[in-house]
Write a structure and sequence with these properties.
The complex is a heterodimer of chains A (360) and B (288).
Chain A lengths: L7 H17 L9 H7 L1 H11 L4 H10 L4 H12 L17 E6 L50 H6 L27 H9 L3 H12 L7 E17 L4 E17 L12 E8 L3 H14 L16 H7 L2 H9 L6 H25 L1
Antiparallel strand pairs in A: 1-2, 2-3, 3-4
Helix pairs in contact in A: 2-4, 3-4, 3-5, 4-5, 7-9, 8-9
Chain B lengths: L10 H16 L5 E2 L13 H10 L5 E6 L6 H13 L3 E2 L8 E5 L12 E5 L13 H9 L4 H14 L10 E3 L3 E3 L18 E6 L4 E5 L5 E3 L26 E5 L6 E5 L2 H9 L14
Parallel strand pairs in B: 2-3, 2-4, 4-5, 5-8
Antiparallel strand pairs in B: 1-9, 6-7, 6-10, 8-9, 11-12
Helix pairs in contact in B: 1-2
The chains are: A alpha+beta (360), B alpha/beta (288).
Chain lengths: 360, 288
């Protein structure tokens, strides 16, 4: 005799218990602390803050721990927490020109006021596994020099001054908030940049790479890449002036791209822009390339039908929380739908068989 | 759970969702964009339905959740627990006792009444999506009532297979105007959509859309005069309760291709067995 399958509730509880045990791993090995993750997995923390759209390194580190190192799962935890927070206002635009830079490089000028600062980069490391790290070692200490108290203006400003760069239109008032309004297309650039800033790093990397390989190719020079802390200020109506709330670490990438000009406009360079929470330079560069590719219409370029030019394609698919949820939902039971397909296919096959017999 | 507002969402968010629901009820079958929130369960797992339920639930409500017709499937259990925890509402497995029912992929067999709300979880709200991937284009097609493409697709099915090859998420026309996706319910359930005394609400979280069928709305499954719509199910009776009028799940019972058919609506099957109906392989309730 058959008794219908029951016990979903018990199964879920047991799965959660097992998950908690697996997350902890071998109890004979010391447990990771949130502070360790925050301090020693800081690039993962940056990615979780950026794509989770919440600047809080402690929560990001906690999410990474809870997610067993699955960064998309950690981003999901942060997003779900973020929606419960009240939104009490908007900050003033951050002044990235006044960033306290840890890293600032330009690929278009050999030197510029403020200089090139490599900062803590993997760029020129040889990717050889460092077996010494497997043993517990001393804390390495970098050589120190006193920071020069000189300004690091945006490199783009020098091209701007000559009129070589396209003029950036002034933004109109308060930018849209994609977490409070449904996405409506066509989207303006502010909304596109907002979506890209929290978009999946891997997806943007692939899209940006595709533009480099010819799918809406537009060669990008990195005019400047800078990483560092900027102050966040907010106007308090009761006070009548802005006060500093704190600071955030950002990665900003500005690219210079070719533009042939038109009958009415002399040749000029155009811009792509990337700005991301944390030290996340791969994402910031990819974002700048995708931003530039999406601007084909306003710049009067040809629609080449490339994925990176298709605003709807990019914006509707760049969010990894939406994507992973929908992808993984196919694990859920679908036996009602499948049953209806089974019936249909069996019937169609039967009818096709009858027709064949009748023909013979 | 005191850290969260009643039914999890804050009142401002609920107000925004209620406005979208009211608009949806005013324009039956029209997909209303709404600012879907990130929920603590994944997109694609019922976040749209959960948000609509959260906006509808009142403390005095009795809530039922089904997935594939069953109250005890894992995701139904998970959503029911979520609202037990965040709203503290009474829950039930009995269709007739519930005031709000959230469902995935089925309409209960027991006819719904005027004091009930049925909330559907919707993965892809756009019935034209698989014919035209761009949202900008499909919105235009709905605005212009340009549904020729859909009829061409159904016609091509007939010319290729001799029948319309859509078994679930079968498109319907609502109140003579909008073509609507009824969510992936089997087409067996389509006739229950129209002239229903209950309010039917459809929530698509990831796609940020809400749409609705007000009570007693005319809903027509698309078809052709010479190929009329046909609600179909497995040609069998439920092995447990003997029902011949309910949608059946096929269960593989051994490794020699043996199978049996049982009601997909677990509450319907349970109630029938409790009333003494016995199928070919069933035992009366309480004995099994």
């Amino acid at each position: 005799m058959y008794v219908a399958v029951k016990g979903g509730e018990k199964a879920i509880e047991a799965a959660h218990g097992w998950l908690a045990e697996e997350r902890r791993g071998d109890p004979g090995v010391a447990e990771l602390s949130v502070a360790q993750i925050r301090g020693q997995m800081s690039l993962a923390v940056g990615r979780v803050m950026a794509e989770g759209s919440l600047y809080d390194s402690d929560l990001a580190a906690l999410a990474i721990k809870q997610a067993r190192g699955d960064l998309i799962e950690a981003i999901f935890l942060i997003r779900a927490y973020r929606t419960t927070l009240p939104r009490f206002g908007a900050s003033l635009p951050v002044e990235t020109g006044a960033m306290r830079c840890d890293r600032r490089i330009s690929a278009v000028f050999k030197d510029a006021p403020g200089g090139q600062v490599l900062g803590p980069t993997f760029d020129y490391t040889h990717r050889l596994l460092d077996f010494a790290l497997a043993a517990e070692g001393e804390a390495p200490e970098a050589a120190r020099v006193a920071a020069a108290e000189k300004a690091m203006p945006h490199i783009m400003g020098y091209l701007d001054r000559e009129g070589l760069m396209e003029r950036e239109a002034e933004g109109v008032g308060v930018p849209p908030d994609m977490t409070r309004e449904p996405m409506e297309l066509p989207a303006d650039r502010a909304l596109r940049l907002q979506a890209l800033a929290r978009g999946d790093e891997g997806f943007l990397l692939g899209l940006a790479y595709s533009t480099q390989r010819g799918y809406a190719r537009n060669h990008a020079f990195v005019a400047e890449l800078r990483i560092g802390a900027v102050a966040v200020e907010m106007e308090i109506p009761e006070l009548g002036f802005a006060i500093e709330l704190g600071e955030v670490v950002l990665t900003e990438c500005e690219t210079v791209n070719q533009f042939t000009g038109s009958k009415t406009e002399p040749p000029q360079f155009t811009r792509g822009y990337g700005l991301v929470f944390g030290q996340t330079e791969r994402k910031a560069i990819a974002m700048a390339l995708v931003d530039r590719a999406l601007r084909w219409r306003e710049l009067g370029e040809e629609d080449q039908g490339a994925p990176a030019q298709d605003e709807e394609f990019v914006l509707m698919h760049c969010d990894n929380i939406q994507a992973t949820g929908f992808l993984e939902h196919i694990k859920l039971p679908h036996y009602v739908d499948f049953q209806s397909e089974l019936e249909l296919v069996r019937r169609l096959r039967r009818e096709a068989g009858d027709r064949r017999e009748a023909a013979e | 759970m005191s850290e969260y507002n009643f039914a999890y969402l804050d009142e401002q968010t609920k107000r925004m969702i209620r406005r979208a629901i009211l608009k949806a009820l005013a324009i039956p079958g029209y997909q209303v964009p709404f600012a879907s929130r990130e929920m603590p369960m994944p997109y694609g797992w019922g976040t749209g339905g959960v948000q609509v339920s959260a906006a509808c639930l009142m403390p005095e409500d009795t809530f039922k959740v089904i997935d594939q017709g069953a109250d005890d499937t894992t995701n139904a259990v998970s959503i029911r627990k979520f609202f037990e925890k965040t709203a503290g509402v009474a829950t039930t497995e009995e269709t007739a006792r519930a005031s709000v029912i959230q469902t995935r992929h089925r309409i209960p067999e027991t006819p719904l009444g005027e004091d009930q709300i049925l909330v559907y979880q919707v993965p892809i709200p756009e019935p034209l999506r698989f014919l035209e991937p761009s949202e900008v284009e499909t919105r235009k097609m709905h605005a212009l009532e340009e549904y020729g493409l859909m009829h061409v697709k159904l016609y091509e099915d007939i010319s290729r297979h001799g029948a319309i090859a859509t078994a679930y998420a079968y498109p319907v026309k609502v109140a003579g105007r909008y073509v609507m996706d009824p969510s992936p319910i089997p087409k067996f359930d389509n006739p229950k959509l129209g002239d229903c005394p209950a309010i039917q609400l459809f929530g698509a979280g990831r796609e940020q859309r809400i749409y609705a069928l007000p009570p007693w709305t005319a809903v027509v499954s698309l078809d052709f005069e010479d190929h009329p719509f046909e609600a179909s199910k497995a040609a069998a009776d439920c092995a447990l309760c003997g029902a011949g009028d309910s949608y059946l799940d096929e269960v593989i019972v051994d490794d020699e291709g043996g199978r049996m058919f049982v009601c997909s609506d677990t509450d319907y099957c349970r109630a029938r067995r409790a009333a003494g109906h016995v199928g070919a392989q069933g035992a009366p309730e309480g004995v099994a």
